[in-house]
Design goal:
By secondary structure, the chain is mainly alpha-helical. The protein is 46% helix and 9% strand. It has a domain at 22-112. The chain has a two-stranded antiparallel sheet with strand order 1-2. A two-stranded antiparallel ribbon has the order 3-4. The longest helix has 20 residues, at 24-43. The two termini are 46 Å apart.
Length: 136
């Protein structure tokens, strides 16, 4: 464990890991804010980002972070949306739109689908270099 300063209050704390570099007290406050925003959005599904930030006292940047982490999801009728990180299309949760997710998955499958051929000389060289055990 390492000791770090909390980004929220500045106090020293034992940093265990994670995306947020906050002490346990500030993490508790942030989680309480998240629950409040989540309940507010459930009660007011058509609220704009401005309304949510003003009524809940949470920054738009923090709300966007929760959306990107897929902790907050909005209904289709909600005016709140963020841009896909690849194409810029408006999405309601996550980092990428469905089309970009599918495109990335296809490209990854293509990368792993190709086989690498090892020349015969290299294959023989590797076979000779194996570790051998003696039976006693």
């Amino acid at each position: 464990m390492e000791v770090k300063n909390c980004k929220g209050c500045g106090r020293l704390y034992n940093y265990i890991g994670g995306a947020y570099r906050l002490c346990p007290e500030c993490m508790k406050k942030l989680e309480d804010q998240f629950q409040y925003v989540k309940e507010y959005i459930e009660d007011n599904p058509r609220a704009s980002m401005r309304q949510v930030t003003e009524d809940c006292g949470v920054s738009a940047k923090q709300i966007e972070r929760w959306i990107r982490e897929e902790r907050l999801t909005f209904s289709d009728e909600s005016p709140i949306g963020i841009a896909c990180e690849v194409c810029g299309k408006s999405i309601k949760s996550g980092r990428f739109c469905d089309r970009c997710k599918q495109s990335m998955a296809t490209r990854l499958e293509g990368m792993y689908g190709t086989s690498i051929t090892i020349p015969d000389e290299e294959r023989e060289k590797r076979a000779k270099a194996r570790m051998r055990y003696l039976d006693m």
